[in-house]
């Protein structure tokens, strides 16, 4: 379905309708929401303890794989449903210093302060604006025909696999690119990444392996595997939310005089949802509701499922597409785009 061109009055009314949804959720936040995030955090920590405990028996294959996979699930849950959303400020209203955007440091090679600038400020302000949003191909992939083709893109199907496996490190240098372009303090940024990576490396490749005694090497290898599995999952979810289907990319001039309603419209047309059940939504950090997240990045993630039908109804009423499909189809869509746009042309 192609988006109908809205008049200014229609865009303004769209903005008012979506603002109303946001205000209703803000006014309704309370005990149930706080209980939700605290339970998720408790479950994630339990999974991490279980995974690391299993790895003490890493000489047995079942314990090695059981520990690695359990730890990968724990890391994914921490990055997606907890870290990403806490650092968006979704839970700041609780006034709990332990679950606050200003204090949370996630289990990831990317420092929280740099991620919040690159993601919260740049990506969510300039969503899908070519030349402003660095999430469009992460500056290394051609994912839209408007990006000029270069022979290096012929290899992008291969290096996208490597990018997926090392996704946290791609995130770590994400903000550095903006500092280079804008004359920011690159040295301070690199120093912050170095400190964060050192802490992560000591935890996963020194401290916990040493605690395992003669299984130290096996534990270090399992920790590495867990990190790679987490990276691949996060990469998959992020790419499914931004690149498959008919999502639109916009020229920079769209930002000139952009109203609240037009900003909402850009979020609707530049995002995709993944259909599925509660477990899928939890493990994606509710970024399976990528459309709702882009419309309301600071609302509690557990509310996106109840908001989604209302957003879908609004889209139908205004003649706007609501991009949503299964995980398998969305994965096929974003990989199809990566493969096709490795070559010149495209549409």
UniProtKB/TrEMBL annotation:
Query: Amino-acid biosynthesis among the record's keywords?
Result: no
Task: Give the Fatty acid desaturase domain ranges.
Answer: 63-324
Offer an example of a GO molecular function term for this protein.
oxidoreductase activity, acting on paired donors, with oxidation of a pair of donors resulting in the reduction of molecular oxygen to two molecules of water
State the Pfam families in the record.
FA_desaturase (PF00487)
Entry superkingdom: Bacteria
InterPro entries per record = FA_desaturase_dom (IPR005804), Fatty_acid_desaturase (IPR012171)
> What EC number is given for this enzyme?
1.14.19.-
A GO BP entry: lipid biosynthetic process
* GO CC, alphabetical: membrane
Task: Could you list this entry's UniProt keywords, alphabetically sorted.
Answer: Oxidoreductase
Looking at the keywords, is Hydrolase present? no
**Name of the molecule in the record:** NADPH-dependent stearoyl-CoA 9-desaturase
Organism expressing this protein natively: Actinomadura macrotermitis
> Which lineage ranks, top first, belong to the organism behind this chain?
Bacteria, Bacillati, Actinomycetota, Actinomycetes, Streptosporangiales
Originating gene: desA3_1
């Amino acid at each position: 379905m192609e988006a109908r061109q809205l008049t200014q009055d229609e865009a303004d009314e769209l903005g008012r309708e979506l603002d109303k949804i946001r205000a209703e959720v803000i006014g309704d936040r309370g005990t149930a929401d706080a209980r939700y995030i605290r339970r998720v955090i408790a479950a994630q920590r339990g999974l991490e303890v279980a995974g690391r405990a299993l790895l003490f028996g890493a000489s047995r294959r079942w314990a090695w794989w059981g520990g690695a996979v359990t730890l990968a699930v724990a890391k994914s849950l921490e990055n997606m449903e907890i870290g990403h959303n806490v650092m968006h400020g979704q839970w700041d209203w609780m006034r709990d210093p332990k679950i606050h955007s200003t204090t949370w440091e996630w289990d990831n090679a990317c420092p929280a302060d740099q991620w919040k600038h690159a993601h919260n400020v740049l990506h969510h302000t300039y969503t899908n604006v070519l030349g402003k949003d660095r999430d469009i191909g992460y500056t290394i992939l051609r994912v839209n025909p408007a990006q000029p083709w270069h022979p290096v893109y012929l290899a992008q199907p291969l290096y996208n696999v490597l990018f997926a496996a090392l996704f946290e490190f791609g995130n770590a240098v994400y903000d550095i690119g903006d500092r280079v372009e804008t004359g920011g303090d690159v040295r301070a940024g690199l120093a912050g990444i170095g400190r964060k990576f050192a802490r992560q490396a000591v935890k996963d490749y020194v401290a916990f392996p040493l605690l395992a005694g003669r299984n130290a090497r096996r534990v270090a290898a399992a920790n590495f595997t867990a990190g790679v599995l987490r990276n691949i999952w996060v990469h998959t979810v992020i790419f499914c939310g931004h690149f498959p289907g008919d999502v639109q990319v916009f020229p920079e001039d769209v930002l000139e005089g952009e109203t609240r309603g037009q900003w909402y419209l850009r979020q609707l047309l530049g995002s995709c949802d993944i259909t599925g059940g509660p477990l899928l939504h939890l493990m994606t950090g509710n970024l399976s509701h990528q459309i709702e997240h882009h419309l309301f990045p600071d609302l509690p993630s557990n509310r996106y499922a109840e908001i989604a039908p209302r957003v879908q109804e609004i889209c139908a009423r205004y003649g706007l597409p609501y991009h949503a499909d299964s995980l398998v189809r969305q994965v096929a869509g974003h990989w199809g785009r990566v493969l096709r746009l490795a070559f010149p042309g495209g549409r």
